[in-house]
Each structure stands twice: as structure tokens, then as C-alpha cells.
Specification:
Oligomer: heterodimer
Low-confidence stretches of chain A: none
Radius of gyration of chain A: 19 Å
Distance between the termini of chain B: 33 Å
Strand content of chain A: under 5%
Number of strands of chain B: 0
Helix content of chain B: over 70%
Structural class of chain A: mainly alpha
Low-confidence stretches of chain B: none
Number of helices of chain A: 11
Mean pLDDT of chain A: 84
Distance between the termini of chain A: 27 Å
Strand content of chain B: under 5%
Order of helices and strands of chain B: HHHHHHHHHHHH
Order of helices and strands of chain A: HHHHHHHHHHH
Number of domains of chain A: 1
Largest interface: A-B, 29 and 26 residues
Largest sheet of chain B: none
Chain lengths: 257, 260
């Protein structure tokens, strides 16, 4: 898909944002509210202890802030597209995209951005800077962190995209649409508190833990090369599978509701 | 009275048809409790005998389970009902039928949560018989539960009146969820809050049906305090009842009767 098309889509998103100001404001508000609750919970937990599985309060705050940035980043770039895609498949409105001279996979993946989530993203980045004060940082580590964030966002995109695509085959898939959110919530806590089998599954088979912890490991230079290599390989393979499944799903798609 | 019985029964039937929704909600509640329980286990650090604010680890897990269970009984459904009726213009039939929207709300939500209410009452009885110390408070605890339920329905109905003013009510849902998470003590008992906040917000409507109800069930609150809370809730119910009727009268003037 060409950049020019994407620019048009972003322009449309901005216009929609301005039209639905009230809804957008409320979206911003409750995004911030959930982040605030997470921070407050962190304060409560660390009243009773100085370290949870070797993590100090500051480490914990960096962890949940990173998780929030990835979540908000996913919502900014993809969440509206996914909502629309699910409706489009079930209502049989995909035709309008299929007859356009664009790649339908990318067209639907990048349909809209959700600007309200961008505000939440900026706020959590500001908090991140606050929590990182006094940490010795080098340019390359920060760059690694940012790349890690994008990989995490892409990972969330892939999981959610596959779940949305289930609508091609199953009629009522909306119930499991929440599952990635719950797994992500689980993974945004210190790894050490969970049984090792759970950590293993969510690090290698469905790498939610890696998605959140990888950027932080980049920042503190603790990550293993093999781990990152596996994660990258995983993302590449799943991206390819997702693309293939999209084309398979389109064959299954009947242009009726 | 009979008409409201039908309302409750019909709503109960609907819940039976969509029982998978309930099972799913329960699975999510258990999943959430599990995450919290793992985290608290790390905080307790394996110290079987350590207490935090008077909670042992086992008591805290029990607390988390029960509070998450209350979130299945006290749903937010009612907030959106009037908004929907106003938006579609279907409120009109209500205005000439001899039916009170508030009573209908109450019986509708009883029908929706009948099973979980009965199970919860049974759990309450179990704790009263087998729990520690001050036994024989079951009737008092049950009264607390019933009154907090009525208060909850009133509060939700009051919030629902916003539907006369707002076109889109859905953003309320995550906000209510967030408020419930924080003020009902889903993640930790309200006394755990820093800066002595817990003492102030213990008696908010969310806390009364979440954190405080759980502590009543667990027998952590004495007869004296339960009695005074019951009196407080009775007063709250009377005030909210009149406030609701007054606001409904005012809001109805905004109602155009045309679907949007």
C-alpha cells in the first residue's frame, strides 16, 4: 500500500476525531484512568515490600508503563481497523475494499488510527521519562527500546488480527476477542510471580511476556541474543502465516451478511 | 406486584438462554483473581504466617475471590437502559403503562442475577456457620446484602438518567468498570490504600457492594458496625429514592418521544 493512501486515511481519522470530540475526550479519560489505577496499585503493592521477585518499585513502574505504551500504541495504530474489519466481515461489507486497487490486507490493517489513544500514549511516555530519571542511558539502548516497543505493538496486532479473522470461519467470535487483552494484563506483571510453565508458554508459543519485557531488556542491556533472535523469527513467521490466512479467509468470504 | 414478578421471571429466562455469557464472565473473574493472587503471593514472600493489615495470604485470596464474585452480581446493565429507551423513543409506552420504571429496574436486575445471588447467600451462610468468631449474624448480613443491592439499583438508575442528556452512553461502561475496580477494592482491600484514603472511601456505593460486603461475609466487621451501616444505607435509600423521582420528573421534560 502506498504512503499516499495511508496519509489520506490518517487525514480521515483526524477529521473523525474532531467530529466526535465528546467520545474522544471520554476515551482519553478512561485510558488515563486505567493507567492511573495500575500506578496506584503499584504504590499499594510496594507499601508492603521493597522488591517483588527482584523488581524494585521503580522497575515495576517502568514495566507497567512499557506495557501501557505498547497497548496504547496498538490502539493508536490498529484498534479502530480491527473493530471495522470484524463488522465488515460479518456484515458482508468487505467488497468495497476488495474492488479497490490496493492490497486488501494492508488496506484493512491500516484503515484508521485512533487519535484519542495517542494522547494516552504521550502521557505514559512522559511518565516513563520520569521513572527513568537518573538511569544511565545510551542512544543505542534507547533505540533498542523503541524498536522493542514497535515489535510489541506488531505482536499485539498479529494476535488480534488472527482473532478478528476467525470471523471468516466462525460466526460468533466476539467473545474470544477479549482474550488477548487478558493475557496482556497477565504478562504486564513481573515474570517471576507465575509458575514457570505459564511463563514458558507465554514467552515462546504466544510471546506476550517477550513483547513487554523485550524493550526493557534492551534498555538495561540484559536481553539474550538468542531470545531476541527467536522473537524476531517468530514475528516474521507469524506475519507470513497471517498474510496467507487472510487470503484463505477471503476465499471463504461470502458477500452477504 | 404480579407484573414485577413477570419482569423478574422473563429476565431470568433471558439469562438462562445466554448462559454462556455468564460462564465467560465467571472465567474472566477467576482469571483476574488468579493474576492478583500470584502477585500477592510474591509480596507475602512465602511467609505463611505473615499478616498484612490483618490479612494472612489465604484470607487475602479469599477476599479477592469474593470481591471478584460480587462483580458478577452487581452489573452495570441498568445504567444503559433508559438511555437506550430514550434514544429509540421506546420510553413512550412506559409513560402510559401503570408501571414504575424504578421497580421494574429492581426486579429486572434481580432476575438477571438471581442465581449468583442465591449462591452468594449460601456462601454467606457457610461462612457464618464455619467462620471465625461472631457467629449468628446471618440475618443481619443478609439484610446488609439486600439493602446494598437495593442501593446499588438506585445508584445505577440515577446514573442511567444521564441517558436523557447524553446521546452515546457506551463510554460510561469502561468508566464504570474502572470505578468498580478501584472503589470496590477488586485488586486489594480498600484499607490498603495509601494516605489513609481507605477510611474515606470505604462507604462509597461501589465499596459497600464490593470490598465492605466481602468483609461482612468474611466476618471481619462486627455487629455494631454492620448495624450502623444498615442504618446508613436505609437513609441513603430514602434519599436516593426521592432524588430519583425528582430528577426523573425533571428529565422527562427533556424527552421528545421521537427516536434518534
Amino acid at each position: 500500500m502506498k504512503i499516499r493512501v495511508y496519509r489520506e486515511l490518517i487525514k480521515l481519522s483526524v477529521r473523525e476525531f474532531v467530529i466526535y470530540r465528546m467520545t474522544a475526550t471520554l476515551t482519553v479519560l478512561f485510558g488515563l484512568m486505567f493507567y492511573g489505577i495500575e500506578l496506584l496499585a503499584g504504590v499499594v503493592y510496594y507499601q508492603f515490600t521493597d522488591s517483588i521477585m527482584g523488581m524494585t518499585r521503580n522497575d515495576y513502574m517502568i514495566l507497567i508503563t512499557t506495557a501501557n505504551i505498547i497497548q496504547m500504541g496498538y490502539e493508536l495504530l490498529f484498534v479502530t481497523s480491527h473493530e471495522r474489519l470484524e463488522d465488515a466481515i460479518i456484515e458482508g461489507e468487505l467488497d468495497y475494499a476488495l474492488i479497490r486497487p490496493v492490497n486488501s490486507f494492508f488496506y484493512y490493517a491500516f484503515q484508521r488510527i485512533d487519535i484519542a489513544s495517542g494522547v494516552g500514549l504521550l502521557v505514559s511516555v512522559a511518565f516513563l521519562c520520569f521513572f527513568l530519571r537518573g538511569t544511565a542511558l545510551t542512544g543505542i539502548r534507547v533505540a533498542g527500546y523503541i524498536v522493542g516497543l514497535f515489535l510489541g505493538i506488531w505482536m499485539l496486532f498479529l494476535v488480534n488480527h488472527n482473532i478478528v479473522m476467525l470471523s471468516f470461519w466462525v460466526e460468533k467470535s466476539s467473545k474470544i476477542a477479549g482474550i488477548p487483552e487478558y493475557l496482556f494484563e497477565l504478562a504486564s506483571r513481573p515474570r517471576g510471580i507465575y509458575p514457570s510453565i505459564l511463563v514458558w508458554i507465554l514467552s515462546y508459543i504466544l510471546p506476550f511476556f517477550t513483547a513487554i519485557h523485550c524493550p526493557i531488556e534492551m534498555l538495561s542491556n540484559k536481553g539474550s541474543v538468542m531470545g531476541v533472535a527467536y522473537y524476531l523469527l517468530f514475528l516474521v513467521i507469524v506475519s507470513a502465516i497471517t498474510y496467507l490466512l487472510w487470503n484463505k479467509g477471503l476465499k471463504k468470504y461470502a458477500s452477504a451478511s | 406486584m404480579r407484573k414485577y414478578w413477570y419482569v423478574a421471571r422473563n429476565r431470568f429466562m433471558v439469562t438462562m438462554v445466554y448462559r454462556s455469557d455468564f460462564v465467560f464472565a465467571m472465567a474472566v473473574a477467576i482469571f483476574r483473581t488468579m493474576i492478583s493472587a500470584f502477585l500477592w503471593r510474591a509480596i507475602y514472600g512465602g511467609g505463611e504466617n505473615s499478616y498484612m493489615q490483618g490479612y494472612s495470604y489465604r484470607e487475602l485470596v479469599l477476599y479477592l475471590l469474593l470481591t471478584n464474585a460480587t462483580s458478577l452480581i452487581f452489573s452495570f446493565e441498568l445504567c444503559f437502559k433508559i438511555g437506550q429507551l430514550v434514544k429509540t423513543g421506546r420510553l413512550t409506552p412506559y409513560l402510559y403503562r401503570p408501571i414504575n420504571i424504578l421497580y421494574e429496574n429492581l426486579f429486572e436486575s434481580i432476575g438477571a442475577s438471581a442465581i449468583s445471588m442465591i449462591v452468594f447467600s449460601a456462601v454467606m451462610l457457610f461462612f457464618d456457620v464455619h467462620g471465625s468468631g461472631n457467629g449468628n449474624l446471618f440475618v443481619l448480613k443478609l439484610l446488609y446484602f439486600v439493602l446494598s443491592y437495593i442501593l446499588w439499583v438506585l445508584v445505577l438508575s440515577l446514573i442511567g438518567l444521564l441517558g436523557f442528556k447524553m446521546i452515546q452512553m457506551w463510554p460510561l461502561k469502561p468508566i464504570m468498570r474502572g470505578l468498580y475496580m478501584l472503589f470496590a477494592g477488586i485488586l486489594f482491600p480498600l484499607e490498603f490504600l495509601p494516605w489513609k484514603l481507605g477510611g474515606f472511601i470505604k462507604y462509597n456505593p461501589f465499596g459497600l457492594v464490593g470490598s465492605t460486603l466481602t468483609q461482612v461475609v468474611m466476618g471481619r466487621i462486627g455487629r455494631r458496625e454492620i448495624e450502623s451501616m444498615i442504618l446508613g444505607m436505609l437513609l441513603g435509600i430514602v434519599i436516593f429514592y426521592f432524588l430519583y423521582n425528582w430528577l426523573l420528573k425533571k428529565s422527562l421534560k427533556l424527552y421528545e418521544g421521537a427516536g434518534a
